[in-house]
Design a protein that fits this description.
The complex is a heterodimer of chains A (about 375) and B (about 140).
Chain A: E1 7-12, H1 14-17, H2 26-35, E2 40-43, H3 48-61, E3 68-69, H4 74-83, H5 97-111, E4 119-125, H6 128-135, E5 147-150, H7 151-165, H8 181-185, E6 201-205, H9 207-218, E7 227-231, H10 247-266, H11 274-278, H12 280-286, H13 304-320, H14 334-342, H15 352-360, H16 366-377
Parallel strand pairs in A: 1-2, 1-4, 3-7, 4-5, 6-7
Helix pairs in contact in A: 2-7, 3-12, 13-14
Chain B: E1 2-7, H1 17-28, H2 33-52, E2 57-63, E3 67-75, H3 82-85, H4 95-99, H5 107-114, E4 117-123, E5 127-135
Antiparallel strand pairs in B: 1-2, 2-3, 3-5, 4-5
Helix pairs in contact in B: 1-2, 2-5
Classes of the chains: A alpha/beta (about 375), B alpha+beta (about 140).
């Protein structure tokens, strides 16, 4: 797919570097990516500084809004739209570093007179929610990113390439400036919080932890908090779905790289990204986006009388169910299943406990039970071995 | 629709169980988020009161298409002077309760602010009943 474009761009997040031994040169990894066919490599977190500055500016202009919630994590952004609609106005309407870095890459290439149709922007994603956010954006019609590559599958290829090239391979050194410590750490838990200007803030990772906190926030049980960094995955992006290695090992390697970067910064060895500086104002402006709209999916019916009726039916349906949340019906909990049944999406006959009950009454056949299982879990799950 | 919850004296860990559950219900009923917030804040205050000042009690919720009625009835010392208790900053909370961040004397005034109807009845050494109503429209 990347070969369709003359100028294929790999948008590489810092988490990708965390998959490799921390003493492996960054330029070596990028050289392997180029050998695999990418014409250009851009670091997603090169936009972390712009992202932080845009957020800070928004916070200053909206000091009355408390707390401000980072919209960095696409899973959190969507969960708030669906489950916590009263909090959507608290989300900071600034694009994520990925989008800003994509805009930057596009700008750089277009300045070199490369036509847009020859440019293919590919994000190497550790995150499943990012795929959704590229395919169906919250704010705009279409994302400027042309494709997404799962990090785990690309990791195998890059690693193989590096092995093939061997120790003595001479790879071109990196022309682009290296990421700052702040930039590398920005995708990890506390990465945004540690550099935010808020007096009172929290960094929370793990979707259950986030939900527990948002419940309290909605009830006004948390006071005076100015900024929230919320991440769906435990250990943030290091623990994302397509992050290949153990989340703690990956995070630690990123810390090691960040420490080295900090040392270089202290010694004045870090060159500024002059290219990025040139487009700073342009990118700050482009980083603005609209506030995501609430789209509650909890509503049973727009008509409150009907919703009340449904609620009582759900309650009755729940009483029939076993309450062990086995998930065999395809719904995560008996409560969710009861709601699906009442809203007409599924039949109560999908519950294997209820099937037993019907069988005893002679009201369901073995074939029907089997075909229901096949329908939910795919054919041939149950076969004679 | 009728819901019931039990509140246990001193059980601050579970303070908010009733208000969280009511919140979820109102979201499913597509009630305006601002209204939900008023309900939740008022009910949470009442729940905490029953936990902090009384020896526990019951929360009774009735929802119809127009409004929500909430009754928090506790067994406890009761309030001798309700008018005084309605004043902001007036509190009889024990020091250990204040240390937990409760008992600032904003409970009843805060409920009053958030609901359309508030009725407090109390009998000394028996208990207090707080009835609140919030209209959805």
């Amino acid at each position: 797919m990347i070969f369709k474009y003359k100028h294929s761009v790999a948008l590489v997040p810092a988490v990708f570097l965390g998959q490799f031994p921390s003493d492996m040169r960054v330029s070596r990894i990028y050289a392997a990516l180029k050998d695999l066919g990418f014409k250009h490599v851009f670091e997603v977190e090169s936009a972390a500084g712009i992202y932080a500055e845009a957020k800070h500016k928004y916070a200053q202009e909206h000091a009355d809004k408390k707390p401000l919630i980072s919209s960095f994590c696409p899973a959190i952004l969507r969960m708030i739209q669906i489950k916590y609609p009263s909090l959507v106005d608290n989300m900071i309407p600034i694009k994520a570093p990925l989008d800003i870095s994509a805009i930057y890459a596009l700008k750089v290439l277009q300045e070199l007179n490369v036509p847009r149709e020859e440019i293919g922007l590919f994000y190497i994603t550790p995150c499943a929610a990012k795929i959704v956010s590229v395919k169906a954006t919250v704010e705009e019609e279409k994302s400027i990113i042309d494709g997404v590559i799962n990090m785990d599958s690309l990791y195998n290829r890059v690693y193989k390439k590096i092995k093939e090239q061997g120790k003595n391979y001479i790879f071109p050194s990196l022309k682009t400036p290296q990421l700052s410590a702040d930039a590398i750490l920005s995708t990890l838990t506390n990465g945004e919080r540690r550099i935010c200007m808020a007096k009172h803030s929290y960094a929370i990772d793990g979707i259950q932890n986030v939900m527990e906190f948002l419940e309290k926030l909605e009830n006004d049980e948390v006071e005076d908090v100015e900024f929230l960094e919320l991440r769906a995955c435990d250990q943030s992006c290091a623990g994302a779905l397509f992050s290949c290695d153990n989340r703690f090992l990956c995070g630690d390697r990123m810390y090691t790289r960040a420490r080295r970067a900090a040392e270089r910064e202290r010694n004045g060895e870090m060159s500024r990204d002059r290219e990025l500086d040139k487009y700073k104002d342009y990118l700050l402006e482009k980083a603005q986006t609209k506030i995501a709209a609430a789209r509650s999916m909890m509503v049973l019916d727009n008509d409150i009388s009907k919703a009340l009726e449904k609620m009582e039916q759900i309650d009755k349906t729940q009483n029939i169910l076993p309450h062990i949340d086995c998930g065999l019906c395809g719904a995560p909990t008996c409560e969710a299943f009861a709601s699906d049944v009442v809203c007409g999406d599924v039949s109560i006959k999908d519950c294997i406990f209820y099937q037993r009950h019907l069988k005893r009454l002679g009201q369901i056949s073995e074939e029907e039970c089997l075909s229901r299982s096949n329908e939910i879990w795919g054919k041939d799950r149950i076969n004679e071995k | 629709m009728h819901l019931e919850y039990t509140v246990v004296e001193g059980d601050f860990v579970n303070a908010g169980i009733a208000s969280s559950s009511v919140k979820k219900t109102l979201k499913q009923l597509n009630v305006n988020p601002t209204v939900i917030k008023r309900v939740v804040v008022a009910l949470y205050e009442a729940e905490v009161n029953a936990i902090a000042h009384a020896y526990g009690g019951k929360v009774l919720i009735d929802i119809d298409p127009q409004k929500i009625c909430m009754t928090v009835a506790d067994k406890g010392p009761g309030i001798p002077d309700i008018a005084l208790a309605m004043q902001e900053g007036y509190s009889t909370a024990r020091p250990e309760v204040r240390d937990m961040g409760f008992g600032a004397g904003m409970g009843l005034p805060n409920m009053q602010k958030n609901v359309d109807h508030l009725n407090v009845t109390s009998e000394v050494n028996k208990g207090t009943t707080v009835e609140m109503e919030v209209y959805f429209q």
